[in-house]
Design brief:
about 500 residues; alpha/beta; Rossmann fold; Luciferase, domain 3; five-stranded parallel sheet; five-stranded mixed sheet; 16 helices; globular
């Protein structure tokens, strides 16, 4: 038995080394086109995209072939380098296919928030200057209503045939031969616009955050050094793609590292989907972790056997004591063994019941989260790292695995500099900071200060070890309300 146990440890270590090596190798692409093509060439037979239950599966090789065809169809509609393409879809494989095809043409595809009213939608489409919109049937009437006064000339519907639209099947079938496809994506420059992320507009008209290929790759390279991923990893994409958090983790990071993604159209279906997907990488907003905590607690409360229910409760209490001791840096003798027994007998079974039994890396962000939620998940054995960032700078800080400090958002990712202004506002500088706000030089100048420092609008404290704690929000400055990851407040 000892020999088998040691063998398992060796295999796990080998997988970890493989992920780290993969992450290091992927640090060289200059554009997301190169990153995607490298992944597709390296793992053509591995599944890249699938629907829950596996009814639809698309390998990296098939993904690349369809990107080529869709890019030809988009080129036939006049899409080229420097253009924008609006996408209004739920999380589905077609989103990934169309988005990736568009940026291979040197265009900047972007996701439109599903909840925008027609007037807001018109503003976004006009600001982006999109001539082509790709959408689902559900959103087509609103798009057609918002179309007057914009540059939109073509509407492509991915799941049906409606008057005034082109089907995705028809788009692929009508593609030009496009013999210059490879030369075209190779000509895309790191400084070219990759995508736009529009703020919610709660403090004014939505602003389009401009993100380049270089900026995205800088973020992906930095975070991969802390949370490496690679082929064999699985993720679920369930948050709106209009949020940079989902766009970053469920789309770009997946193609950067070769992670299999299962898009989920309705986030309400997440509990059942986790049972099917068994993700190895999982990101969630605080409300997701709160619901998972409630689900775990319900498993204990609904246990019909009283003795078993008591044992489960005791195991969770032991786990909490262990996590608190680890956080305090003083674990009493015997506590680690007690925690391991609790994990083997109870906690591992709860994780399995939640569909989180194979999660090896997890993050929490997008809003303040209660420290007790993070403590509970850590006690349960789910390695959640709280992180911070925003559309304008992607991920800025991560709690490093093995050195997590609950209640903080961790330390800066490689290449990112942080400092505090005189009033305590957190300032960020580095290669992940946005190019600017689209067609809004005044707002860009307001957000980007002297020396390239981004005014985040968050108030923070930084301890002697570099851990950041978000303490509040500055009323003025940035109106971005669609952050990649926001942090816990004291």
């Amino acid at each position: 038995m000892a020999k088998a146990h040691n063998s398992g440890l060796i295999q796990k270590s080998a997988r970890t080394r493989a992920r780290e090596a993969s992450a290091a190798d992927l640090g060289s692409p200059g554009t997301m086109c190169e990153a995607f093509q490298a992944t597709a060439a390296r793992s053509p037979q591995q599944v890249a995209l699938r629907t829950p239950g596996g009814a639809v599966t698309i390998t990296w090789g098939q993904y690349a072939a369809r990107v080529h065809r869709i890019a030809g169809g988009l080129a036939g509609l006049g899409v080229g380098r420097g253009d924008t393409v609006a996408l209004m879809m739920t999380n589905r494989p077609e989103f990934h296919l169309v988005d990736t095809a568009a940026f291979h043409l040197g265009a900047a595809p972007f996701s439109v928030c599903h909840t925008l009213a027609a007037e807001q939608l018109r503003h976004v489409l006009a600001n982006a200057g999109s001539r082509v919109v790709v959408c689902e049937r559900e959103f087509t009437p609103r798009l057609l209503t918002a179309r007057p006064g914009t540059a939109v000339r073509h509407v492509v519907c991915v799941d049906g045939r409606l008057d005034g639209t082109i089907t995705l099947t028809g788009l692929e079938a009508s593609r030009s031969l496009n013999p210059g496809f490879e030369a075209g994506w190779r000509a895309v420059d790191p400084g070219d616009l990759l995508t736009l992320v529009y703020t919610s507009g709660t403090t004014g008209p939505p602003k389009g955050v401009e993100i380049t290929h270089a900026q995205m790759l800088a973020g992906l390279t930095a975070t991969s050094r802390i949370l490496p991923a690679g082929p064999g990893d699985r993720a679920v994409s369930y948050l709106p793609m209009a949020l940079i958090a989902e766009r970053y983790g469920g789309h770009y990071a997946a193609m950067f590292a070769g992670v299999q993604v299962t898009p989920l159209a309705d986030a309400k279906a997440l509990p059942g989907a986790l049972q099917d997907i068994r993700p190895t990488i999982f990101a969630g907003a605080p409300w997701v972790w709160e619901k998972l905590k409630a689900g775990a607690e319900a498993m204990v409360a609904c246990e019909p056997d009283q003795a078993r229910r008591h044992a489960m409760g005791q195991a969770i209490r032991t786990a909490h004591q262990y996590v608190r001791a680890v956080q305090a840096g003083a674990v009493p003798a015997g506590m680690t063994d007690a925690y391991r027994r609790s994990d083997q007998q109870v906690l591992s079974k709860i994780r399995f019941g939640l569909g989180l039994d194979q999660v090896r890396a997890a993050t929490c962000g997008a809003a303040p989260v209660a420290p007790e939620v993070m403590e509970f998940m850590r006690a349960l054995g789910v390695p959640v790292s709280e992180v911070w960032g925003m559309s304008e700078c992607l991920i800025g800080t991560i709690n490093p695995p093995g050195a997590i400090r609950i209640g903080t958002v961790g330390t800066p990712v490689p290449g990112v500099e942080l400092k505090l202004a005189g009033d305590g506002e957190l300032l960020v500088r580095g290669p992940t900071v946005m190019k600017g706000y689209r067609h809004d030089p005044a707002k860009t100048a307001e957000a980007l200060g002297p020396g390239g420092w981004l005014r985040t609008g968050d108030l923070a404290a930084i301890d002697r070890d570099g851990y950041v704690r978000i303490t509040g929000r500055k009323n003025a400055v940035s109106s971005t309300t669609l952050p990649l990851q926001a942090a816990s407040q004291e």
